[in-house]
């Protein structure tokens, strides 16, 4: 038996370069549309977390003040909410189990007296750890967390 091959040429298998380029362009367009919305949600979640953390620390500071008749000094800082400062007879803590860190893995800052018209302030300087900034670099604290939505 003599089997002959068909006279026709090759059978196409796979994708052409044009088809691959179209797929890459479509994926790029989808990423360009979805990406900013996704990052906006991450930033929104960070702001909500900052608001919750600042409010929790402020509540602990109020309990500290009720027991000690004063807020922790600037030198005692927020650690006075977790461990008793030296020479404190009325300390009835811990007022927090642990000090929370901001979404950028930095400790929250504390000012006594406050610099924005409040007696004491709890704040974060944002991702850049410098005063001022916008977006993830913005400063959020006791004076403006109510503006976070």
Please list the strands of the largest sheet in the order they lie side by side. 1-2-3
Number of strands: 3
Q: State Rg.
A: 29 Å
The main β sheet shows up as: 3 strands, antiparallel
- Cα separation of the termini: 82 Å
Order of helices and strands: HEEE
Runs with pLDDT <50, length 5+? none
Mean pLDDT: 87
Structural class: mainly alpha
Proportion of β residues?
5-15%
The percentage helix is 25-40%
Per the principal axes of the C-alpha atoms, what is the gross shape? elongated
Counting copies of identical and different chains, the oligomeric state is single chain
Number of helices: 1
Description:
This protein has 149 residues and is mostly helical. The chain is built from 1 helix and 3 strands; from the N terminus they run H-E-E-E. Strands 1-2-3 form a 3-stranded antiparallel beta sheet, with helices on one face. The relative contact order is 0.12.
Topology at a glance:
Elements: H1 17-68, E1 109-111, E2 121-124, E3 140-141
Antiparallel strand pairs: 1-2, 2-3
Brief characterization of the structure:
This protein has 149 residues and is mainly alpha-helical. The chain is built from one helix and three strands; from the N terminus they run H-E-E-E.
């Amino acid at each position: 038996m003599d089997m002959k091959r068909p006279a026709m040429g090759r059978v196409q298998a796979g994708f052409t370069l044009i088809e691959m380029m179209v797929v890459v362009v479509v994926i790029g367009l989808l990423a360009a549309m979805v990406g900013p919305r996704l990052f906006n949600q991450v930033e929104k979640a960070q702001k909500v977390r900052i608001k919750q953390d600042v409010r929790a620390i402020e509540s602990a500071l109020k309990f500290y003040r009720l027991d000690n008749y004063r807020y922790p000094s600037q030198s005692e800082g927020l650690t006075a909410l977790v461990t008793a400062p030296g020479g404190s007879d009325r300390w009835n803590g811990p007022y927090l189990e642990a000090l929370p860190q901001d979404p950028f893995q930095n400790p929250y800052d504390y000012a006594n007296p406050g610099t924005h018209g409040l007696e004491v302030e709890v704040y974060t300087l944002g991702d850049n750890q410098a005063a001022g900034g916008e977006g993830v670099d913005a400063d959020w604290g006791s004076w403006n967390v109510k503006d976070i939505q």
